[in-house]
Amino acid sequence: MDPLDDAALDQLFRTARTHNHWLDKPVTDETIRKIYDTMKFGPTSANTTPARFVFVRSETAKARLRTALAPGNVEKTMSAPLTVIIAYDLRFYEKLPKLFPHSPAMRDLFAANPQLVETTARRNSSLQGAYFMIAARAMGLDCGPLSGFDNAKVDEIFFAAGRECEGCDQEFFPEGHVRSNFLCNLGYGDPAKLFPRSPRLEFAEACTFL
Amino acid sequence: MDPLDDAALDQLFRTARTHNHWLDKPVTDETIRKIYDTMKFGPTSANTTPARFVFVRSETAKARLRTALAPGNVEKTMSAPLTVIIAYDLRFYEKLPKLFPHSPAMRDLFAANPQLVETTARRNSSLQGAYFMIAARAMGLDCGPLSGFDNAKVDEIFFAAGRECEGCDQEFFPEGHVRSNFLCNLGYGDPAKLFPRSPRLEFAEACTFL
User: Most buried residue, A4, A112, A130, B198, by most Cβ within 10 Å?
Assistant: First the structure.
């Protein structure tokens, strides 16, 4: 496999930026589905794929999300075409008979070990959140991830009890076993409103060969 | 920004696979540095970039790693050209004066809140681990991530006390504040040895619009 060209590396990483100001251009359902149908193939531990994605777009849902945001994150989130709640399902293991069919014991291993479930769900939903953002950039979108919000409040508002789950054939919302990980605003960023990029660690500050 | 073409989406996600069998082709230092210099731009909370990467390549280091692996992960790891320990530094905030220079208060906010440090380090080093894998695939490499190992043992062996840190100008190893997150074997995978890909969740099983 050849390396991707410079333009692709730039679009995914090198010149891509976190955006806080958005052009007046909507994000279509079709684009969201394309992102999911790309990022879903990213690797997770025992193919657990514990991430769940809530696409907050309606005014009503945005207003509910607003109450959980840190003050500095309100404006950028309310003005974004769409905000994704990257969440994780603590009962992800119930889907392992489908996702990991060659090893039926895996479901029971997780079911018997809540600490392993928690660690696995957090780590792998974070991986999947990263896959989501890179896939969104691959589709030409910009991302504005943030963790400055009240996770417990988001969980209470969006995941706690009896909520309708539009388009879901699996009722994971009503039972309160989904937890928020982080948020990501999504849209087409306004490059004119970017501030200069902050530094990164040099190779030798973050890496070593042994 | 236009979407990347199908070949790029395939290479990064759609036809990329987790590999357990490796071609006899080394991974050069130059390639590793290119991957780091690409993935380092991926977004993290307050630009904290808490991930640290140990590239385990020498026979000695591989032999030490072996003792911490789950039995099912020994062969694929020992035969990989290189294994990356994706770790996180619990004192990442000491680098914020460099990484987040416009807000000196951020360092103190983290320094005063160990729970926030732990959550931030785990979440963001997982994001960075995902960026690393996608950047590796972008360079034409294959990945074999795994979490079936004894984290405490890896931390004891590689991060606990007085270890030499080759090429590091920041002595983060000796003080015991670096923890392993997950491992990733790296190399050029043998496509002939892949098993069929496992299923993924449908959009409606993992996603909802609100």
Answer: A130
